[in-house]
Amino acid sequence: MKDIIDFRVDPSAYCHWSVVYDGPVANLIMDVDEREGLFDGYELKLNSYDLGVDIELNDIVQRMRFEHPEVKVVVLQSGKDRVFCAGANIRMLAEASHSQKVNFCKFTNETRNAIESAEEDSGQNYIAAIKGSCAGGGYELALACNYILLTDDGNSSVGLPEVPLLAVLPGTGGLTRLTDKRKVRRDLADIFCTVEEGVRGQRAQSWGLVDEVVVNSTFDETVQCRARAFATKSVKMDVRQGIALNVLKRDVQSDGSIDYEHIQVALNRELRQAMILLKGPRQAAPVDMKTFQQQGDQAYLLKLCRELEDAILHLRTNELEIGLWIFRTQGDPESLMAHEHLLVRHLDHWLSREVHAYWKRTLKRLDVTSRSLAAVVEHGSCFVGVLAEILFAVDRSYMMDDEFEGDTRPIATIALTEGNFGMYPMGNDLTRLETRFLANPGHIDALKSHVRKAIDAKTADDLGLVTMILDDIDWEDELRIFREERISFSPDAMTGLEANLRFAGPETMETRIFGRLTAWQNWIFNRPNAVGTNGALQRYGTGVRGVFDRKRV
User: Fold this and answer.
1) Whole-angstrom Cα distance, residue 105 to residue 97?
2) 349 Cβ neighbours under 8 A, 6+ residues apart
3) What is the rounded distance in angstroms from the CA atom of residue 451 to the CA atom of residue 195?
4) What does the pLDDT look like over 474-507, one tens digit per residue?
């Protein structure tokens, strides 16, 4: 296994994917190199995938929105004969640690969510063109698309065989996407998820598993015809020129701490804590969107978002024992507000919408991260607008109240902007403020009267925007007690507690996937029926079936 899993990707080094751009249509081809697994001990046969394959896919989905905004339709297809995708590599799953399995499923779900949000956020429709076997995670990849075509050649099929073959669940939201997204009838879904061989042809269409079945002789032509039709009907604005996303630069220290341009991540392994400092802008906001676009991937709010996403993915995958993340900010609130206000004023510009959508996806990654999250609002901080969302995403927030001896920084304030009232919804389709004040929805209107105003500690406390305000006398002691207490608790209990408290309000397909389905899969991944020496996942491919503990719990 590679020592550090790196989520930064250079497109010139893709091993598993290629894209052919043809005006408004992009043909995304999955052709996995079976020798290039992220871990040792398995080959990625039959277009099966591991985390490395999905890291590339996530990068492509992201780049397509910024570098190729002309794309209106993406055709997802296989570069191999007789197989679309065999799903997650079984040998990889069998050998992976529990944490690797769970992080893998979480990341693949987030990538599928990014595909699903592409239509609403970026005007990009995804079409899955299935030839050959499409099983497990392969079908889950197709389920993320807007439209699924299946060739009718007598062999091509779709299936979710995890339960009968491996004694686990479809880990990338397959069950939930069947019932919630495609609205497959429950009894038919029950049959579909308990047969090994999958479903073919017209039955797949009549059950709602695919949208269209096409004879093999005209399949390729029909797929491109459908893609052109989707592109013609698209209301997406024509954009000729995107911006390049260069590989992020970062400096990893010997102790694991990381320096980006706008973010510093300091690790304290003894306290199992990461202190994440987000720095405010050093330059004035661009005067217009033309200037913003000329800055490209160096534009402050875009680069900050990319760095934060990379830090989140790095920490939760590579630093499993760092259980407490504490967020800080330092910078000029007015300057940060000006940077955000430019984008808010120009939501009709494609790049403004993409940056907002990127922040929405990145903040959602924070919501579903299984770490204790806290924020400290110190003097000199800039928790404004999109960065104020972090205050409402964390489990607790502490704010300095009044002057501190020897501290000459500006008094701590926070500020709300228009973005806090709808631009960054959570997985429950509510804003973080709506989720925070679920019992008092009228309070949201009261908060709107404070938009773009500096809110001091006492006012923030009165408005319920922070957990606790502390003066100079209590600050250090209270934070020390919190940190020591938090890391003394069971990490498992903390994960369960936080996941259940963060998503109040209505249940959606997304909250079901990251809450209910993930919790069940987490449990199953610990059970001997799946992962024990004689479990189905361990015995897969040996010709011997798993031995099960027959007690139902």
Assistant:
1) 13
2) 289
3) 55
4) 999 999 999 999 999 999 999 999 999 998 999 9
| Rounded to 5°, angle at Cα 101 from 95 and 104 | 125
Show the tokens assigned to 388: 């104020």
Query: How far is the C-alpha of 57 from the C-alpha of 7, rounded, in Å?
Result: 11
Q: Which stretches of 437-474 are DSSP H helices?
A: 442-448, 457-462
How many whole angstroms separate alpha carbon 376 and alpha carbon 457?
A: 12
CA angle 84, 54, 497 (to 5 degrees): 120
Please report, in angstroms and rounded to a whole number, the separation of the first and last CA atoms in the chain: 35
- Specify whether the CB–CB gap between 157 and 199 falls below 8 A: yes
Cβ 162 vs Cβ 169: under 8 Å: yes
Place of tokens 């104020």: 388
Beta-carbon contacts of residue 144 (< 8 Å; ≥ 6 apart): 112, 113, 115, 116, 126, 177
Is residue 1's pLDDT more than 50? Answer: no
Pairing assessment for the beta strands 83-85 and 133-135 based on DSSP bridges: parallel
Residue 141 one-letter amino acid: L
283: burial class by Cβ within 10 Å (0-12, 13-18, 19+)? Answer: exposed
CB contact at 8 A, 96 and 39: yes
The CA distances from residue 101 to 199, 347, 379, 529, 540, in Å, are 27, 39, 41, 16, 16
At position 323, the amino acid (one-letter code) is G
**Alpha-carbon torsion, ordered 26, 27, 33, 37, to 10 deg:** 50
Give CA–CA dist 532/549, Å, rounded. 10
3-class SS of residue 349: coil
Q: Which of 27-36, 53-62, 220-229, 499-508 has the lowest mean pLDDT?
A: 499-508
CA angle, residues 211, 165, 129, in degrees to nearest 5: 25
Task: Please identify which residue in the block is written with the tokens 């499993």.
Answer: 320
Q: Please give the mean pLDDT across all residues of the chain.
A: 96
Angle at the Cα of 351 (from 347 to 352), degrees rounded to 5? 35
pTM of the model: 0.96
Contact 348, 354 (CB under 8 A): no
- Provide the sign of the torsion angle of the four alpha carbons 358, 359, 364, 366, taken in this order: positive
